[in-house]
């Protein structure tokens, strides 16, 4: 699905492709999640990294991208690097080499200590934000600092956007989505979480005050479009304001 002449959302995946910089953009991988949770007594099947690799490989084959921008939270723990996270981070770097893409990490709030591995892993790490081409990538727990006048689009993660859909029988389903709108006169794209276990925040069912990212205090989120990712397709479900009306009925 094309957003602009330069930006495409890969069909059925929480991945954006930017043609001018030949890069795919993803966010919120939360590597090592199952291992960390097992130490807390929650036994979860190890599927997250496998599913992430499958999606990234498919996206690279489709686009021929030579870089992958991880827009924050490549790992899961806040205050340390768990051994499970280290192992999957190491495996991720080797996987990137195998499919011949260069990883670029925008540090998120879960990414403490990752820069320690930037030199041995040859991983480009940026704190909070980076301008690449005409695109400003930032994780989202802080407001972006727009330093270039020709910035075409802001791309962020952090929020794990989703929408809640009610069926006639009263059952509710949560579906991941991109959010697409404007901030400060520039286009704003919010990436869904790549993590299999990150269900997301149901934007159409939550108040603006309850959202994590400070940018939504300064953005009319009701005017943003929810572009849903699921069941092998990507579809624009319209503005959040319209989705709020539908779920309120």
TrEMBL record:
Residues 24-162 form the Calcineurin-like phosphoesterase domain. GO terms for molecular function: hydrolase activity. It holds the Pfam family Metallophos. InterPro entries: Calcineurin-like_PHP (IPR004843), Metallo-depent_PP-like (IPR029052), Pesterase_MJ0037 (IPR004376), Pesterase_MJ0037-like (IPR024173). NCBIfam families: SbcD_rel_arch (TIGR00024). PANTHER family: BLR1149 PROTEIN. This is Phosphoesterase. It comes from Candidatus Micrarchaeum acidiphilum ARMAN-2.
């Amino acid at each position: 699905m094309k957003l602009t002449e330069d930006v495409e959302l890969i069909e059925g995946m929480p991945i954006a492709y930017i043609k001018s910089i030949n890069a795919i953009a993803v966010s919120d991988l939360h590597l090592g999640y199952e291992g960390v949770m097992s130490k807390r007594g929650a036994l979860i099947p190890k599927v997250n990294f496998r599913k992430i690799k499958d999606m990234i490989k498919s996206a690279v084959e489709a686009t021929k991208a030579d870089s992958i921008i991880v827009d924050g939270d490549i790992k899961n723990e806040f205050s340390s690097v768990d051994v499970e996270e280290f192992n999957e981070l190491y495996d991720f770097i080797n996987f990137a080499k195998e499919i011949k893409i260069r990883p670029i990490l925008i540090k998120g709030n879960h990414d403490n200590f990752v820069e320690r591995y930037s030199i041995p892993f040859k991983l480009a790490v940026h704190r909070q934000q980076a301008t690449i081409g005409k695109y400003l990538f930032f994780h989202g727990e802080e407001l972006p600092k727009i330093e270039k006048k020709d910035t075409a689009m802001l791309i962020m993660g952090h929020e794990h956007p989703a929408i809640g859909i009610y069926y006639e029988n009263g059952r509710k389903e949560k579906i991941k989505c991109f959010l697409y709108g404007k901030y400060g006169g520039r286009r704003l794209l919010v990436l869904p979480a790549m993590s299999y276990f990150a269900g997301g925040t149901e934007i159409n069912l939550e108040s603006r005050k309850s959202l994590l990212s400070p940018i939504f205090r300064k953005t009319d989120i009701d005017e943003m479009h929810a572009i849903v990712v699921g069941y092998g397709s990507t579809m624009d479900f319209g503005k959040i304001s319209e989705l709020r009306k539908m779920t309120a009925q």
